[in-house]
Specification:
about 475 residues, Beta-lactamase, Peptidoglycan synthesis regulatory factor (PBP3), Domain 2, 2 domains, five-stranded antiparallel β-sheet, about 35% helix, about 20% strand, disordered N terminus
């Protein structure tokens, strides 16, 4: 039952996302360069895309796969306080990789006993491959491969058409691919799950029951997203964790949440270069993230692009009682996050009104649509409705019927049926005439029987002798 409800919730979320995407959104281009190969910036409050770059191009996610791993654990584990004892035999073989620097550790050693929730903190904050494998082995009933299949099945349910998972550690694998758009779908769904946001956005976490023999008292895991740390050169107020990733052969990735002034945003960046032209190590994923979020915090605010009180035209109304037109206005106001460097006067209002409108017209009745366009792109479609009602004039209505009756469909049908009946009648007459003529030609001669004395005498044979006297 829990899995069934999870699937239903996933499908509902996908439908909501699809509905919101149909509404359109305003996208702006920042004045600075984004070095990450792909990026996506979304307003989580309205699900509008404010910025995107190669959002449907596939890249290796690295340890971003652990966002989906956390989803599977949270949906399939009813007791997050369940304890798991670390056994290196379970996860040590997953450290064998051509690129060992891609793996991250939380110093989980043999004999450490941690709860499922503590392992989730280790995985989300540090990208711990030990925690990821231990959780996958537990939830996959002893099979990490079964857990990976669960991840792929969930991706299909969420509509991630360009995502394939092959491992839970994020280690280099050319078959393991995703896109910025798919990572947005996965992360937005994850944020609907209880405890995910709290775990994924925690700045630091200390396990409650560490093994004293293996660790020091202050065994603490710090989130790899240093934008949360005030001491970091990349610090930005309002930024919240969620996941970072590093792949030697591709670059750096980040998914983070940010909130300020009542607005919440989700940012995904993929494949930021590891180094500059001189080979110097760089953190372009953090630089890009800080620049984009600072840009939206500084230059964006909610603006009303079109008010519901704006009259956008009038429509002629036939047979109206005392009035022959009605004004139209937007059914609702359109408000969105707007870049203060863009002139709202450049927004084009493309109005389409209905024709041949006849009374009665109800107030609020849909009579057209207005399409808002910015920089050649449709950003919203809003229904246009009547500002007032128009009653029907019976006199005008019947007069119109009389005047236009010859043009009505009923008249056309009457003429058509009359012609048809006349044609049938003529055909029947012709057929009856032909039939009568044929009968006269083929009928035998008629001989009349004599019925008078004179006729009988005339009918006697001439050679019969007269009677003697």
């Amino acid at each position: 039952m829990k899995k069934f409800l999870s699937v239903c919730m996933s499908l509902l979320l996908v439908c909501c996302l699809c509905t919101s995407l149909c509404a359109g959104a305003v996208q702006f281009t920042p004045s600075f360069e984004i070095r990450s190969a792909a990026g996506l910036l979304i307003n989580l409050d309205t699900d509008e895309v404010l910025y995107q770059k190669n959002a449907d191009t596939q890249y290796m996610p690295g340890s971003l796969v652990q966002v989906m791993a956390a989803v599977i654990v949270l949906e399939n584990c009813t007791d997050l306080s369940m304890k798991i004892t670390a056994d290196p035999a379970i996860y040590s073989r997953y450290s064998e990789t051509e690129y060992p620097d891609d793996l991250r550790y939380a110093d989980i050693m043999e004999g450490d006993t941690l709860t499922v929730e503590e392992l989730l903190y280790a995985m989300m904050l540090t990208s711990s491959y030990e925690a990821a494998v231990l959780l996958a082995n537990q939830i996959g009933n002893g099979s990490v491969d079964s857990f990976v299949k669960m991840m792929n099945d969930k991706a299909d349910v969420l509509g991630c058409t360009q995502t394939t998972f092959t491992n839970v550690t994020g280690v280099y694998d050319v078959r393991q691919k995703t896109t910025a758009n798919d990572m947005a779908l996965i992360t937005k769904y994850a944020l609907t799950l209880s405890k995910f946001s709290r775990i994924a956005t925690e700045a630091a976490f200390t396990p409650a029951t560490p093994n004293i023999d293996n660790h020091e008292i202050d065994w603490t895991w710090t989130h790899s997203n240093t934008m949360m740390q005030e001491s970091s050169p990349y610090y930005l107020e309002g930024v919240k964790g969620i996941k970072t990733a590093n792949l030697t052969m591709q670059g750096r990735n980040i998914v983070c949440e940010a909130a300020r002034d009542g607005s919440t945003f989700l940012l995904i960046l993929l494949a930021a270069p590891f180094s500059d032209e001189d080979g110097e190590l760089q953190y372009y994923h953090l630089e890009d993230a800080r620049a984009l979020l600072d840009w939206v915090f500084t230059h964006f605010s909610y603006q009303t692009i079109l008010s519901e009180n704006t009259e956008l035209g009038q429509i002629s109304v036939k047979n109206g009682d005392g009035v022959d037109y009605v004004l139209v206005r937007p059914e609702k106001s359109y408000m969105t996050l707007w870049n203060d460097t863009a002139d709202m006067a450049t927004v084009i209002q493309d109005v389409e009104l209905q024709e041949n409108v006849s009374a009665p017209v109800k107030q609020g009745e849909k009579l057209g649509v207005v399409t808002l366009k910015f920089a050649g792109e449709d950003i919203a479609k809003i229904d246009l409705v009547a500002t007032s009602a128009v009653e029907l004039s019976a006199y005008k209505y019947y007069l119109t019927l009389i005047q236009h009756f010859p043009e009505t469909e009923w008249m056309k049908r009457a003429i058509l049926f009359s012609i048809l009946f006349c044609a049938i009648y003529i055909v029947l007459c012709i057929y009856a005439h032909i039939l009568h003529t044929q009968r006269r030609k083929t009928a035998p001669p008629v001989h009349l029987k004599p019925n008078s004395a004179a006729a009988k005498r005339e009918a006697r044979p001439m050679n019969k002798r007269p009677r003697k006297k």
